UniProtKB/TrEMBL annotation:
InterPro entries: AA9, AA9_LPMO, CBD, CBD_sf. Residues 334-369 form the CBM1 domain. Its main location: secreted. This is lytic cellulose monooxygenase (C4-dehydrogenating). It comes from Anthostomella pinea.
């Protein structure tokens, strides 16, 4: 039942319930922390699904974006890093494009298509799977993409207040990519805003605390798209996932990895072909304002290639239960950080806020918010 899963999720407390998408890796290589990502002015959620902010968050539609664009190929493994959150809900990824210059595209309107979705794994919500992996999540860019610039939209939807209309909280971040592909368009496509309605059953859940079965839940935004005449449909990872644990320069970084929606994927050794490489940081960023020499690092320079082969990487596979640094509980003493849980039915943790005021969102959930 949703209630028991929800309570279990919130009892595994986090330092900050509000969150942002900060960094990504392409086949284990990152442009850097908050590089090639349109960062919002705060870590607060978007709750008005009819606003332009639903596309790429607050100020995300501002162009030129002033954000650099990073090179990738169809079929590449992408790792995204989010702040850890206790709020139960799914994660989805969409692309907008192809366009000539991602930095000049607001992302507002038609042209988005879903490429990845994880709702829950055996009753454990995606947010907790990602929390167990230290805030990291891995998925694969589809094959059959047309070459060009794209906006990559990562969304974590928090459902802890979804019993009221407008209570669902959308945490959104958009990265800019130049993708080299071999296919054509992807379908179906959606508009943002437009595809979401505040009363949709996957956004407004009046019985969220009263017997709702999380196993029946599917994230908003329609089905995962099919790309290119000879391309493939990316997986909708709603039934199974694995966690990879790979060594990086700063230590071990566990990662939640999207799996195929057509077959169960074991988390035991032997599934390494689905996992991502060790995340590292290496400058491979392209900028539309850069010199032609710098632009040579972009995948646009390889647009004449007949095919694109993603880099093959090795990894060590671990089970979900062993992967990652699970956020520690606030326990029964001490002060709760801003946006952390501070009360509600069945809550046994701290009730005093280190910052802000403990405010009831509903009878089951209270959190520390700014005064």
């Amino acid at each position: 039942m949703f209630k028991s899963v929800l309570v279990a999720s919130t009892l595994v407390a986090t330092v900050a319930a509000h969150q942002n998408f900060h960094q990504f890796w392409v086949n284990g290589v990152s442009p850097g922390y908050q590089v090639a990502v349109r960062m919002p002015p705060s870590n607060s959620p978007v709750t008005d699904v009819t606003s332009n902010n639903i596309a790429c968050n607050v100020d995300g539609e501002t162009v030129p974006s002033g954000v650099e664009t990073y090179a990738a190929n169809e079929g590449d493994k992408i790792i995204v890093n989010w702040d850890v959150s206790s709020h139960p809900g799914p994660i989805t990824h969409m692309l907008f494009g192809p366009v000539d210059d991602a930095s000049l595209e607001s992302g507002v309107g038609a042209g988005w298509f879903k490429i990845d979705e994880l709702d829950n794994v055996n009753g454990t919500w995606a947010n907790q799977v990602i929390a167990n992996a230290g805030g990291n999540y891995t998925f694969t860019l589809p094959t059959g993409l047309e070459s060009g610039d794209y906006l990559l939209r990562s969304e974590m939807l928090a459902l802890h207040a979804a019993e009221t209309i407008g209570g669902a909280q959308f945490y959104i971040g958009c990265a800019q990519l130049t993708i080299t592909g071999t296919g054509g368009g992807c379908n179906p496509t959606i508009s943002l805003p437009g595809a979401y309605n505040a009363t949709d059953p996957d956004i407004y859940i009046p019985d969220v605390y009263y017997g709702f079965d999380a196993a029946t839940y599917t994230a908003p935004g329609g089905p995962v798209a099919t790309c290119g005449a000879s391309g493939s449909s990316p997986s909708m990872a709603t039934s199974a996932a694995i966690v990879t644990s790979t060594a990086a320069s700063s230590g071990t970084i566990p990662t939640a990895v999207a799996s195929s929606g057509t077959s169960k994927v074991s988390s035991a050794a032997g599934s390494s072909s689905l996992a991502a490489s060790a995340p590292t940081t290496l400058a491979k960023v392209t900028s539309k304002a850069a010199s032609s020499a710098a632009l040579a690092t972009s995948s646009k320079a390889a647009s004449s290639a007949a095919s694109v082969t993603p880099t093959k990487v090795a990894t060590t596979v671990a089970t979900i239960t062993t992967g990652g640094a699970t956020p520690s509980s606030t326990g029964g003493s001490g002060a709760v950080a801003l946006y952390g849980q501070c009360g509600g039915a069945n809550w046994t943790g701290a009730t005093t806020c280190a910052e802000g005021t403990c405010t009831g969102m509903n009878e089951y959930y209270s959190q520390c918010v700014s005064a």
